[in-house]
Amino acid sequence: MSRRAADRLKVVLNHLDRSNSASVRSSFTSSQAVSYHPQTLRYTFDTGFLSPEQRIFYEENGFLLIKNLVSEEDIDRFRAEFEHVCKGDVKIPGMVVMRDVAIAKSEFVRDQKAVSKLQDFQDDAELFRYCSLPQILKYVECFTGPNIMAMHTMLINKPPDAGKKTSRHPMHQDLHYFPFRPVDHIVCAWTAMEKVNRQNGCLVVLPGSHKGTLQEHDYPEWEGGVNKMYHGVRNYDPNHPRMHVEMEKGDTLFFHPLLIHGSGMNQTQGFRKAISCHYASADCYYIDVTGTSQENISKEVNEIATRRYGTDISVSFADTWALRGRLVHGERTSL
Ligand SMILES: CCCCCCCCCCCCCC(=O)SCCNC(=O)CCNC(=O)[C@H](O)C(C)(C)COP(=O)(O)OP(=O)(O)OC[C@H]1O[C@@H](n2cnc3c(N)ncnc32)[C@H](O)[C@@H]1OP(=O)(O)O
Ligand SMILES: Nc1ncnc2c1ncn2[C@@H]1O[C@H](COP(=O)(O)OP(=O)(O)OP(=O)(O)O)[C@@H](O)[C@H]1O
Ligand SMILES: O=C(O)CCC(=O)C(=O)O
Ligand SMILES: [Fe+2]
Ligand SMILES: [Mg+2]
């Protein structure tokens, strides 16, 4: 080992001694120890908030689970607001209320109002409180730095599967939808609004897949149909080791936009609820996705934007994001 490497290792071990973590320390005594020097951690900022263990876990796996981060009271308030939206008591311009494809296309609709997803709730003050919760932003800052934009908001109400497996969300990388970079300064917070498990279709992740590149995405060839814009990675290998992330109400998963993830069928009679926000550093910049694998989704989004904003003004894929993004901390510098 070179002198410089030995010095670096000493710094790392000192650092870890302070965290008093046996498990992490043992991983540092392996031959790869030096590659874990804080300066070489590429996915998180050292704000002093995350423990070295947490930073290394995210580095290796592309996600971080924080138990009990959002209070029961807050979640109950989000749930109540969601019910107001479903009943039509609250109408927010721009917010998309989506039904499951199997329900939308069925002749025998059990419950016309069965909403599978709310998208773009940035102008609903009550739901948007989720994106500004200080305990969430404290974590987000470790990934984005201090200037933080809430770019994409969703409340997912996964319906009981109607028998066609359409309640599944195919394995995908969220970056497919995003025309902004750099990728490492984007993070998703996903909070369980109730117990989520394999039965009701919890998140399924491929640990470490965030270290790969952005893959080509398309609609999976599912016999029972696929929801609008639910693209999946092409040539998905079902044999790749995967993990079912079971969570309790209030638990929050932070994950990298290249992490391959999806969710299984909801085999229960209840609607599985989660609320999420994609954050990005306001210092990120927009990219032109023309000629890239993202061109297919940008075309679909542009079709929806044309329906929403009309043809009088031309709204680009990047514009649709600039219009929806909201500053939640620091300064709106670029996005
Ligand atoms: C500004 C642009 C925003 C873009 C969002 C960026 C995405 C970013 C994502 C970020 C990463 C997150 C990753 C993700 O989460 S990706 C999934 C995100 N999904 C979306 O963003 C979809 C947004 N939803 C919509 O635009 C509308 O709700 C649609 C267009 C789907 C329905 O429209 P509307 O509610 O007005 O219904 P309608 O009664 O007039 O029916 C019209 C036609 O549509 C059929 N139908 C109904 N429901 C579905 C369905 N679920 N799947 C397929 N088709 C469906 C229906 O049978 C009928 O077809 P036909 O009978 O004519 O054949
Ligand atoms: N061809 C495919 N392309 C992309 N994603 C897929 C494909 N097949 C399955 N998936 C995804 O893999 C994940 C797991 O699928 P599945 O429905 O088997 O759920 P599960 O949790 O394994 O359920 P079960 O407990 O019944 O096995 C889901 O996100 C699903 O949408
Ligand atoms: O809540 C889920 O089922 C997963 C949703 C998801 O990954 C997404 O909408 O990008
Ligand atoms: Fe996703
Ligand atoms: Mg399965």
From TrEMBL:
The keyword Magnesium does not apply. One of its GO terms (molecular function) is phytanoyl-CoA dioxygenase activity. The keyword Endoplasmic reticulum does not apply. Keywords: Dioxygenase, Iron, Metal-binding, Oxidoreductase, Vitamin C. SUPFAM superfamilies: Clavaminate synthase-like (SSF51197). Pfam families: PhyH. It catalyses: octadecanoyl-CoA + 2-oxoglutarate + O2 = 2-hydroxyoctadecanoyl-CoA + succinate + CO2; hexadecanoyl-CoA + 2-oxoglutarate + O2 = 2-hydroxyhexadecanoyl-CoA + succinate + CO2; phytanoyl-CoA + 2-oxoglutarate + O2 = 2-hydroxyphytanoyl-CoA + succinate + CO2; 3-methylnonanoyl-CoA + 2-oxoglutarate + O2 = 2-hydroxy-3-methylnonanoyl-CoA + succinate + CO2. Its cofactor is L-ascorbate; ATP; Fe cation. Pathway: Lipid metabolism; fatty acid metabolism. InterPro entries: PhyH, Phytyl_CoA_dOase-like. GO terms for cellular component: peroxisome. Its EC number is 1.14.11.18. One of its GO terms (biological process) is fatty acid alpha-oxidation. Belongs to the PhyH family. PANTHER family: PHYTANOYL-COA ALPHA-HYDROXYLASE, PHYTANOYL-COA DIOXYGENASE, PEROXISOMAL. This is Phytanoyl-CoA dioxygenase, peroxisomal.
